[in-house]
């Protein structure tokens, strides 16, 4: 029996991706830090879509966790043919003012855990004739963002890694895609401390469900870069066509953290 493994599956885009895969008939392996949220989601999915759902809590900020997650799959003989690397978070604020520990934790989860999981699961994915890796990045992958600098840099890494990885694993029958959503209705802004920006941009939000549908559809079609939504596509093209200094100056004005009066 084949499974799709989704990390960061308890909330937001990760939860929506799990639901979309289940809607398409895929059995699921779900992981995140909150075991209660995972169990509740597993029950919901099984009742609605009648697919097999297994869940296990792992804290992927722990360097040992990717290997433990892979071992959990091997021990239980869960054959994974879709790996969705969704777990990640952002921190908003000046690089010099944000605690370095939090920024390093963000780098570890957004990049190191993703790379480690991918490496551990390539032998498992290779057992299937065709398999997929979907790495979740961001529209921030395409530009440097002052006051959101480390997050944007980690997502640029994810995009670059995804584009190169596809050549490295193509002979194993593994297709690699990178989902680059823009502003999305999720827990992300709250955890990042960006409610002030989020409140001003609510009209531009896409729902996590729509992002997930576009992401899964693009993955199954073998698309390399998946940018959901017309406005986000236009923004990505505009970023590419505009001098970097202008883009970065504009981003600095938007993302600058202002002290309330």
Structural overview:
The protein is α/β, with parallel strands linked by helices. The protein has a single domain, classed as 3-Layer(aba) Sandwich (Rossmann fold), CATH 3.40.50. It has ten helices and nine strands. The strands form two sheets. Strands 3-2-1-4-5-6-9 form a seven-stranded parallel sheet, sandwiched between helices. A two-stranded parallel ribbon has the order 7-8. Helix 2 links the parallel strand 2 and strand 3. Helix 1 crosses helix 8 and helix 3 runs parallel beside helix 4. It starts with a strand and ends in a 6-residue tail after the last helix.
Explain the layout of strands and helices.
Elements: E1 2-7, H1 12-23, E2 27-31, H2 35-49, E3 53-55, H3 65-75, E4 79-85, H4 100-125, E5 131-136, H5 149-169, E6 174-179, E7 184-185, H6 188-192, H7 195-200, E8 206-207, H8 208-220, E9 225-226, H9 230-241, H10 244-255
Helix pairs in contact: 1-2, 1-8, 3-4, 4-5
Radius of gyration: 18 Å
| Total number of domains | 1
Multimeric state: single chain
The residue-averaged pLDDT reads: 90
Task: Flag low-confidence runs.
Answer: none
By helix and strand content, what is the structural category? alpha/beta
Taken from the alpha-carbon principal axes, the silhouette is globular
Q: Return the CATH architecture.
A: 3-Layer(aba) Sandwich
Strand content: 5-15%
CATH superfamily: NAD(P)-binding Rossmann-like Domain
**CATH topology term:** Rossmann fold
Strand order of the largest sheet: 3-2-1-4-5-6-9
Instruction: Tell me roughly what share of residues is in helical segments.
Output: 40-55%
CATH class reads: Alpha Beta
């Amino acid at each position: 029996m084949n499974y799709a493994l989704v990390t960061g599956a308890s909330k937001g885009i990760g939860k929506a991706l799990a639901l979309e895969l289940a809607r398409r008939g895929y059995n699921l392996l779900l992981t995140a830090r909150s075991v209660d949220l995972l169990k509740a989601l597993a029950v919901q999915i099984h009742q609605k879509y009648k697919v097999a759902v297994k869940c296990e809590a792992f804290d992927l900020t722990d360097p040992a966790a990717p290997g433990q997650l892979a071992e959990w799959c091997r021990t239980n003989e869960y054959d994974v043919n879709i790996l969705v690397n969704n777990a990640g978070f952002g921190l908003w604020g000046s690089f010099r003012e944000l605690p370095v520990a939090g920024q390093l934790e963000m780098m570890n989860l957004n990049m190191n855990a993703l790379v480690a999981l991918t490496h551990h699961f390539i032998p498992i994915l290779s057992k299937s004739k065709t398999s997929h890796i979907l790495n979740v990045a961001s529209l921030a992958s395409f530009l440097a963002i002052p006051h959101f600098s480390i997050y944007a840099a980690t997502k640029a890494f994810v995009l670059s890694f995804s584009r190169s990885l596809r050549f490295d694993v193509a002979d194993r029958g593994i297709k690699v895609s990178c989902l680059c959503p823009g502003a999305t209705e999720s827990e992300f802004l709250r955890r990042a401390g960006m409610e002030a920006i989020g409140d001003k941009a609510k009209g531009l939000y896409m729902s996590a469900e729509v992002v997930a549908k576009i992401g899964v559809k693009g993955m199954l079609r073998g698309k390399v870069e998946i940018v959901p939504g017309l406005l986000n596509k236009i923004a990505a093209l505009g970023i590419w066509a505009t001098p970097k200094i202008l883009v970065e100056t504009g981003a600095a004005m938007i993302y600058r953290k202002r002290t309330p009066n």
